[in-house]
Amino acid sequence: RTPYTELPKGFLGCIKNECERLSNGEVLCPSSQEGVDLLFWEAHFETTNSNFTNFTRTKDISFLYSPVTKKACQGIIQPTFFETSPGNVFALFRSGCGVLAQARSTDYGHTWPEFAESSKIVNPDAGMDGVTMVGQPDLQMLLANNNNASHRTPLSILQSLDGGASWETLLDIETDPSGSFAYPTVIQSRFNPRVAYVCYTHQNASGHNMAFTTLDWS
After folding, report:
1. Euclidean distance between CA atoms 130 and 202, whole angstroms
2. d(Cα 68, Cα 1) in Å, to the nearest integer?
3. One pLDDT digit (tens) per residue for the chain, 218 residues
4. DSSP string spanning 17-66?
5. Quick one: which of 33, 67, 181, 197 is 20 to 30 A from 94 by CA?
């Protein structure tokens, strides 16, 4: 079997969503903590070099209130991120405020604001994931998200063509109002840059399963 090395003490690695190699060669990992022993959720990022021999951790990022929904929440977890240009990283975070939170870094994810801002992307306190469609200017940034403030349906694909400043719904993957379609992961194909794959949990009257779909703009 492939040998493994434990992460240094105090480092968690990626939580739910994928690490990604940035344009400077460093690997950025979206991370967070939650649990019964924590009064507030917190998100942070961890960076390692290309050889995975040196690790650094950012300060915690907080988010407790959305002026968009006028709701308070206990923080943010499970970030996803996009490198919109070399060194500039845009991140989205799961929150309990009825919308996703957002933040930006200008130094390859090494430093972030103390507090995230509210986005206008509706979300029911559910996991989401994004991908940069590298080399595809008409696709750019895609986000798999439950486009609903209270239920994990529908499961939709949102798109941003302006570095995360605005988003529009591109298509719905699942729409059953009685179902729950959650914790999506979305990646760009290695073999066709105009293809993305989405995996997610699929729960309806027939049971609770994993589901998979291919998005093809070829």
Report:
1. 19
2. 50
3. 888 889 999 999 999 999 999 999 999 999 999 987 778 899 999 999 988 899 999 999 999 999 999 999 999 999 999 999 999 999 999 999 999 999 999 999 999 999 999 999 999 999 999 999 999 999 999 999 999 999 999 999 999 999 999 999 999 999 999 999 999 999 999 999 999 999 999 997 777 899 999 999 99
4. SPPEE-TTS-EEEEEEE-STT-SS-EEEEEEE-TTS--EEEPPPBB--EE
5. 197
